[in-house]
Specification:
The protein is of the alpha+beta class and 153 residues long. The chain contains two helices and eight strands. The strands form two sheets. Strands 3-2-1-5 form a four-stranded antiparallel β-sheet.
Length: 153
Amino acid sequence: MRTPRAAVPNGFTLLETLVALALVAVLLAVAVPALVVPKGVELRAAADLVATGLRQARLAAIREQRPVALLMDVEARALQVEGGRRIRTLPRDVHLDLFTAQGEVLDARRGGIRFFPDGSSTGGRVTLARQGLRTEVNVEWLTGRIRVREDGA
């Protein structure tokens, strides 16, 4: 015995299709923001990396009772605490500028900011730029205090 053709479903109902579309919309609403990184986040992370390197150099100078510098290669975007083995590199699209004391400039692309056993420093500023945004990491010469300041360039 055969069933009539009208009794056999040949596809999805409108309700099933709407439920499936609603589920996809909810999943996209949750997943897409998690995948998209705001453009200032990577710049802030790079500035935090520079500030961390500066703080490590300052702590090493105080602990070891000798001058210690954070050395920077602005073209390679590389940072290294003087006497340390670890070299940290900033993302390729982050532009790095170093403003430091003349005595701390090694050549056209390398220089550093030096800290002394009392916590003071030669002072200086590291400017990072990416996609129209700019962040500065400032080092006060008298206290060696390190501050990160964000700007819209």
